[in-house]
């Protein structure tokens, strides 16, 4: 992270930050870290301690945040919620407070028309199902396994054009209240294999009203990912997948306009921009 954006509060114990041994961006030093974006829906990448120090304890919004051992240092990888207040935010490192400066980001808006209009205006029974499935999803997303994610910079789970970006405010079928798009849409023909972009265990497999056939993967330490609208799934809860392991196929199930993969990443209890975890990001 830019050290100028990182201050110390009136902490009793000062936080001494290690100095990375490499300085140029884009080299191997950054190889397996997400791209930092200090914006709502973004990710902070914070050097915390030298790698021979004990694993630091990092918390944000009263939740454990991801710490990883990379390039001889401990790093904190903190997901910033889409509804986070801009300005100063506090991160708790081993009991001392660190300051993050979150910048404003105006996400794009769009109108979207889906033909399965029940997914936009559900009946009472359908709404009850949506609520039940939301609760089940949050139980799965609450999974916290101690293992560190073994890969943070990834290839996309399916090859294809990015058709709807993370954070977009979408107005469905002329409705006045937008829904915030909490993932990245990748267009591909029905039946195209969808693979795990990094090693994981399967935390949820479900046929859901809004997101269709859905798989949630647990990468460890509160980092999970979600794959939606699949035509078919190939995995069961508890299965482990290596990078490139097939989890299902692209489809058009749930609230969609056509076949695509909706891919989301969840970090310390919030959805974050998946493109920050890709080697090659689109320009938008
Ligand atoms: Zn989507």
Describe the structure.
The structure is a single chain. The strands form 5 sheets. Strands 10, 13, 15, 16, 17, 19, 21 and 22 form an 8-stranded antiparallel β-sheet that branches. This protein has a 5-stranded antiparallel β-sheet with strand order 1-8-7-3-4, with no helix packed on it. With 284 residues, the chain is mainly beta. It has 2 domains: 3-102, Immunoglobulin-like, CATH 2.60.40; 109-277, Glucose Permease (Domain IIA) (Distorted Sandwich), CATH 2.70.70. Residues 1-13 and 23-29 have low confidence and may be disordered. It has 1 helix and 22 strands. The protein binds zinc ion. Zinc ion is lined by residues 164, 181, 183, 185, 262.
Strand content: 35-45%
Number of strands: 22
Q: How many separate domains?
A: 2
Helical stretch count?
1
The CATH homologous superfamily of the largest domain is named Glucose Permease (Domain IIA)
Bound ligands, named by name, code or SMILES: zinc ion
Instruction: State the CATH architecture of the largest domain.
Output: Distorted Sandwich
Any descriptors?
284 residues, mainly beta, Immunoglobulin-like, Glucose Permease (Domain IIA), eight-stranded antiparallel β-sheet, five-stranded antiparallel β-sheet, 1 helix, disordered N terminus, binds zinc ion
In a few lines, what is going on in this structure?
The chain has 284 residues and is mainly beta. It is built from one helix and 22 strands. It is globular and about 55 Å long.
């Amino acid at each position: 992270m830019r050290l100028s954006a990182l201050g110390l509060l009136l902490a009793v114990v000062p936080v001494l930050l290690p100095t990375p041994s490499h300085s140029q961006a884009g080299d191997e030093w950054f190889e397996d870290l997400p791209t930092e974006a200090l914006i709502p829906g973004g990710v902070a990448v914070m050097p915390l301690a030298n790698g021979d120090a004990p694993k630091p304890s990092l918390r944000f919004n009263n939740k454990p945040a991801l710490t990883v051992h990379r390039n001889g240092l401990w790093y904190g990888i903190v997901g910033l919620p889409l509804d986070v207040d801009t300005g100063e935010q506090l991160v708790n490192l081993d009991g001392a407070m660190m300051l993050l400066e979150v910048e404003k980001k105006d996400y794009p808006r769009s109108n979207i028309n889906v033909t399965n209009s029940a997914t936009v205006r559900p009946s009472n029974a359908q709404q009850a199902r949506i609520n039940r499935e939301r609760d089940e999803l949050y139980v799965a997303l609450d999974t916290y396994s101690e293992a560190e994610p073994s890969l943070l910079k990834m290839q996309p789970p399916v090859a294809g054009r990015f058709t709807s970006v993370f954070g977009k405010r979408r107005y469905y079928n002329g409705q006045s209240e937008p829904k915030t798009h909490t993932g990245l849409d990748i267009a591909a023909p029905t039946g195209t294999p969808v693979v795990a972009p990094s090693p994981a265990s399967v935390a949820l497999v479900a046929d859901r009203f809004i997101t269709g056939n859905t798989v949630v993967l647990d990468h460890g330490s509160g980092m999970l990912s979600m794959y939606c609208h699949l035509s078919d799934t190939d995995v069961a809860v508890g299965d482990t997948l290596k990078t490139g392991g097939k989890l299902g196929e692209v489809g058009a199930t749930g609230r969609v306009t056509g076949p695509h993969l909706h891919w989301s990443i969840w970090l310390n209890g919030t959805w974050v921009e998946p493109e920050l975890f890709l080697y090659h990001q689109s320009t938008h």
